[in-house]
Specification:
By secondary structure, the chain is mainly α. The chain has 18 helices and six strands. The strands form three sheets. A two-stranded antiparallel sheet has the order 1-2. Strands 3-4 form a two-stranded parallel sheet. The chain binds arginine.
């Protein structure tokens, strides 16, 4: 048996067969395809469309095919085009003609829409679990280093001191949004398309509510044309994955910077670093670099599917077969990246002495100095100006702010007093005591909230 050739007078050209086949990649959908078929057959029997013994025979056949695939014994044939035809042909071979009843009241168009939704639902659940794992690593790392201070940056220039925990919790927030986005995507994926037929619905008295219930769908698609031609849920998954990879690549970039000799803020665990084939001294952050690099392919997959779907007339078009490889690739990259980054974050070592030292240079307390003058009555804009001149003076003297004498300060403004020396990295942190600020108490609360959110998400 080869591709469906009923109305044709000759076999498909070998090239046509090879070009149109998808089984080499859509075989991955077999558990979903078989689960969907079993529920479909049960529904057909329940509705009296086929007999109960026929249903049992078909289900037995499908289960043994599943076993064969799992044991690597199934012979996938590209000439049978896709996973659906491969399974159906093998079923008929096994159980005889009755196997041909499986496809009653169904088309490959609603069948593939079902398989893709079942696959994507699982992928979403796994993605959210992966995100939770990484978030836990971030919270653990933040908690274990809760007093560590680092320079905060803007324009990659040292700007103001922040707690390392505050910085890590910024990523926690990003991944919260990502998990939320996957959750929303799940809601729109969780619609049963089966029962839409090729495009217009089916002529049998089927029970779509039963199908939805048995396959765990929350809703039933309301328009058959839409149901077989909708791939929004795949695009949404890929969009959510792209955003998540964007966040991962930003975190990866910071790890790469921080592990360089120029920053020297962290040391990667040996298990998460690789060596160079020529330079014996190298300890390369390959995991982080690949997380950054693979992001490109995930964006590419999103753009590819958007472009494939653009301008497609209703309803099913073979173009849509192109949705699979990109989705599978994106899911594989995202899950692997989340896991690898979680492991890397869980094992890296923070060099707190170095980060603290880095907050001492670069005039990170300049804003606090301006705020000091503001609190003594100076308008902020002139305070900013005064401090800018003080910094320029200190730079010319090669001094840090705490090395300047009170006389020197007073030359810039009479408002300066002895208490100017109480401006420290610690006071700078403590002063940022509003919701979302880096004050240690706020960060401790944020950490506790994050921990609680994680616990709640796992129940
Ligand atoms: N392999 C096809 C796909 O992935 C399955 C649906 C085929 N439908 C059809 N009318 N040729 O899109």
């Amino acid at each position: 048996m080869s591709q469906i050739r009923g109305r044709f007078n000759k076999d498909a050209d070998k090239l046509t067969e090879a070009y149109t086949a998808s089984v080499q990649f859509d075989k991955r959908l077999y558990p979903y395809d078989i689960a969907g078929s079993i529920v479909h057959v049960r529904m057909l029997a329940k509705q009296g469309i086929i007999s109960e013994p026929e249903a049992q025979t078909i289900i037995g056949g499908l289960n043994s095919i599943k076993e064969e695939i799992e044991q690597g014994k199934f012979d996938f044939k590209p000439e049978l085009e896709d996973i659906h035809m491969n399974i159906e042909a093998s079923l008929i071979e096994k159980v005889g003609e009755v196997g041909g009843k499986l496809h009653t009241a169904r088309s490959r168009n609603d069948q593939i829409a079902l398989d893709m939704r079942l696959f994507t639902r699982d992928a979403i659940a796994q993605s959210i679990a992966g995100i939770r794992g990484l978030q836990k690593s971030l919270v653990d790392l933040a908690e274990a280093n809760k007093d560590t201070i680092i320079p905060g940056y803007t324009h990659l220039q040292r700007a103001q001191p922040v707690l390392l925990a505050h910085h890590l919790l910024a990523y926690f927030e990003m991944f919260q949004r990502d998990a939320g986005r996957f959750g929303c995507c799940y809601e729109r994926t969780d619609h049963l398309p089966l029962g839409s037929g090729a495009l217009a619905g089916v002529t049998y008295k089927i029970d779509r509510e039963f199908l939805a219930r048995e396959l765990g769908f929350d809703r039933i698609s309301q328009n058959s044309l839409d149901a077989v031609s909708d791939r929004d849920f795949v695009i949404e998954y890929e969009a959510a994955a792209s955003l998540c990879m964007m966040h991962l690549s930003r975190l990866a970039e910071e790890i790469i910077l921080w592990s360089s000799a120029e920053f020297d803020f962290i040391e990667l665990d040996d298990a998460y670093a690789t060596g160079s084939s020529i330079m014996p001294q190298k300890k390369n952050p390959d995991v982080a670099e690949l997380a950054r690099g693979k992001t490109g392919r995930v964006y590419g997959n999103l753009m590819a599917l958007l472009t494939t779907m653009k301008g497609l007339p209703l309803a099913y078009n073979k173009d849509m077969q192109e949705d699979k490889e990109g989705l599978f690739c994106t899911v594989d990259i995202l899950l692997a990246t989340l896991e690898a980054m979680a492991g890397m974050m869980a094992t890296l070592r923070i060099k707190a002495d170095n980060t603290a030292q880095a907050t001492k240079q670069g005039y990170l307390l300049a804003t606090d100095l301006a705020d000091y003058l503001v609190k003594k009555g100076e308008p902020f804009r002139t305070a900013h100006d005064i401090v800018a001149r003080i910094i320029s003076y200190a730079v010319s003297q090669d001094k840090t702010l705490d090395m300047l004498s009170l006389e020197a300060y007073k030359q810039f403004s009479p408002r300066f007093d002895e208490d100017v020396y109480s401006i420290t990295v610690e006071s700078s942190l403590a002063a940022r005591d509003n919701i979302g600020g880096t004050a240690p108490e706020r960060v401790a609360q944020a950490l506790a909230d994050a921990r609680k959110a994680l616990e709640e998400s796992s129940t």
